[in-house]
Amino acid sequence: MTTTWRMRFELSDSPGALARVTIRLAAADCNVLALHVIPVPGGVLDEIVVRAGEGVLPADLVEAVRSEGGKCVGITSADMRDLVDEPTAVLRAAKTALSDPDMTAEALRQVLAADSVTYGEAAEGQVQVGDMVVRRGWTRFTQVELARAQALLDLVEAPAPAVRGMLSDDGVALVLRPGAPSDEDAVAALHTRCSMRTMFNRYHSGLRTVPRRWLHRLLNPPRGTTILAQCADQVVALGQLIHTGTPDCAEVSLLVEDAWQRRGVGTAVLAALASDARAAGYAELVAWCLPSETALVRAATRAGLDVTTRREDGLLRVSIAPRGRALKTPIATVAAEKTR
């Protein structure tokens, strides 16, 4: 069994230094699949994609580089997309973002090989690129990479958090948009219009109304995002994406008003959440449903997302891969007005 790794390191400026590294890697039963040279102030960084033989650990690869004087070593898992040269990768990402502005954050994540790309203000350990916050733990960003990322945003004129327009199955126009503190009353009204069964399926308790103190956390989850579906002046559905604390995994939940169920609204909200999850670097979305409740599974399947289920602790654990097939429900994306 082989594993592919992406490594980045700085070598001393001496003849044959890179050749000696590759010889050491070859001796460790490794095959160098790609090589990129990245200019940085005062020199260059070397980046290679390596396929390691069975039993060769990342620490072994790092040691091979360091034994030849390499420093600033970063390593992360890689896939076949990392074998594409940088100009080709950027052009493909630009095409993706131009075709669907809602995919801009995901395109930027691919270009930067970032752990996550989200909207907002950068905190410690993060980097601001336009309206987006990028994070990468395995190695620091170079100025060349950040300039390339800004050029991509300039090309597609990336919007603030997207407002998406959609049509329900019966042709009614709705808007999908991020939640805001000003939506507390509308979200409270959404809950009062939901039946006891809908509320129980969402919260797994006999909750009839939502306590006022919950509304702020529903609209501003500290480790996630909230998307609302709105028709005219009413919020008719709410979806949340919450980081679970497990790497690459987030919990997803939906609440759709009874009158709007089975009309494609939940499918569209879930597809929008999956798009945000891809941009944030999540590989899995998890939802907890009652064993008899199949609405979320149906919505995920209709959205073109791969779904698996299993019984766990009396509930149905639904696992959704956010990198699914093409969405079957039409959604148009328009630029949101920036409100800073």
TrEMBL record:
UniProt domain N-acetyltransferase: residue ranges: 174-325
Annotated keywords: Acyltransferase, Transferase
EC number(s) on file: 2.3.1.-
Pfam (any one): Acetyltransf_1
SUPFAM superfamilies (alphabetical): ACT-like, Acyl-CoA N-acyltransferases (Nat)
Domain ACT residues, every copy: 6-80
Cited Gene3D superfamilies: 3.40.630.30
Entry GO MF terms: acyltransferase activity
Keyword Acyltransferase attached: yes
PROSITE patterns referenced in this protein's UniProt entry, alphabetically: ACT (PS51671), GNAT (PS51186)
Superkingdom: Bacteria
Annotated transmembrane regions: none
Protein name, UniProt field: GNAT family N-acetyltransferase
Organism the protein comes from: Lentzea rhizosphaerae
